[in-house]
Amino acid sequence: MASEILRIHEELTSGKISCTELVKAKLSELEKNTHNTANFLLTEIALEKAAKVDEKIKNGEELGLLEGIPFGVKDVFLVQGCPASASSDFLKNYKSPYTATAIQKLLDAGAIPLVKENCDSFGHGSTNENTVFGPVKNAVNEELVGGGSSGGSAVNVAKGYTTFSIGGDTGGSIRQPAGFNKVYGLKPTYGRVSRYGIMAYASSTDCVGPIASSIEDIQLVLNTISGKDYHDQTTFVSEPVDLTEAIDASTLSVGYYTEFIENEGLDAETKAEFLALVDKLKAANIEVKPLNFKNADVLVSTYYALVMAETASNLARLDGSMYGGRIDGDSLKDSYAVTRSENFTEETKRRIVGGNQVLSQGHSDEIYTKATALRSQIISHFEQDLKEVSIIISPVSPTAPPKIGGSLKDPLAMYLSDIYTIGFSLGELPTLTAPVVTETGLQITATKAQEELILKFAKFLNEII
């Protein structure tokens, strides 16, 4: 699909449409949409910025590529003066005192925020049903889940309500909903984009990334939001992604994990479609290597042990005293208990309880320390494999999107649905979901800081399939 950003840029600069008209139309679509994607419309700020863009056009001033481009913001990001609820009762009336770095970079480039988007509460979920605003409905079939936790963001892009959206990915929360809604979603290398101003789920795997309808739009947004930020000491200086030159297929070597493909939970049709791609790559004279992931069976347990521990720590600050609505009890301790019990969703409470168990005396050495050691082994495994191959491909999800309501009855099944995404989060690796090959898309992974290679390979795939 061609770049929506470039198309809108041309329409604005040619006078085919005014920015105010564009923004009003998008806001109207968001307000009327039946997919339940919008927590809060940012009408005032959006129209104010649109008027400034129109004034620049009227005065004959040159527009940057992102100036006047409407976008969505997952409701775990802070935008100064705007609501930031994390789709929870706890923060339903909270307003941001400052703006997240990634969002500020987009504002500085002239992009226009339209909406705070529905998501799983605090990022806790894989279906976007764990939200006080009601479940997000899939862009293709409203009976199915939108995917999580950035479901609202992915559906808005798929339906054209936003040109692109900014999501957060801890263990697949950009990639999986992108696959469920047939758009592109990128989890960058950990540290490429600042996490400052995003409500932390698990600080060691949280990543900020774009969701868009084209590879070119992913590139444009990524280049804008990347870079070193003194607010976030995990960030690093990164080279801009340049897609002007096509990938040299003769230099490629592609790997896939046999354990992923032979997994009993993988849908038979998805498996067949994936193996058909392997055959096409071989027919294009690309070296394809089956890889062995000996620790594949511990990916889910390692991931959830670590992220539950981190979320229990990160959410300890929410007690009704400094943030959110407080419910008074008979004592201070009782107030804390009642406030947290009433304001957190069941899934969030499940993860906090699990995290406190992981970190508790007598269990931390057995669980948390062991999980940390396993993560180091997983990282080393990926590093070794990516010396043998330049790209790793994998399914996004073992099954098609479930019907709304089904996953809430079986949390374990929801956790296991992340099996193909969480490993690359633990490995801090850049991974793109491309809406090709299978019903829920294809994951493309490379070594750290190789987003350019991933996006070029995605373009190459579009040419051969």
Summarize the structure.
The protein is of the alpha/beta class and 465 residues long.
Please describe the topology of this protein.
Blueprint: H1 4-14, H2 19-32, E1 38-41, H3 43-58, E2 70-74, H4 101-108, E3 112-117, H5 151-159, E4 164-169, H6 175-180, E5 184-187, E6 207-212, H7 215-225, E7 253-257, H8 258-261, H9 268-283, E8 287-291, H10 299-314, H11 332-343, H12 346-359, H13 365-388, E9 391-395, H14 411-416, H15 422-426, E10 431-434, E11 442-445, H16 451-464
Parallel strand pairs: 2-3, 2-4, 7-8, 7-9
Antiparallel strand pairs: 1-3, 4-6, 5-6, 5-10, 9-11, 10-11
Helix pairs in contact: 2-3, 10-12, 10-13
What does this structure look like?
- It is built from 16 helices and 11 strands.
- With 465 residues, it is an alpha/beta fold.
- The chain has a domain at 4-225: Amidase signature (AS) enzymes (Alpha-Beta Complex).
- Helix 2 packs antiparallel against helix 3, helix 10 (299-314) packs across helix 12 and helix 10 (299-314) packs across helix 13 (365-388).
- The two termini are 14 Å apart.
- The model has no long low-confidence stretch (mean pLDDT 95).
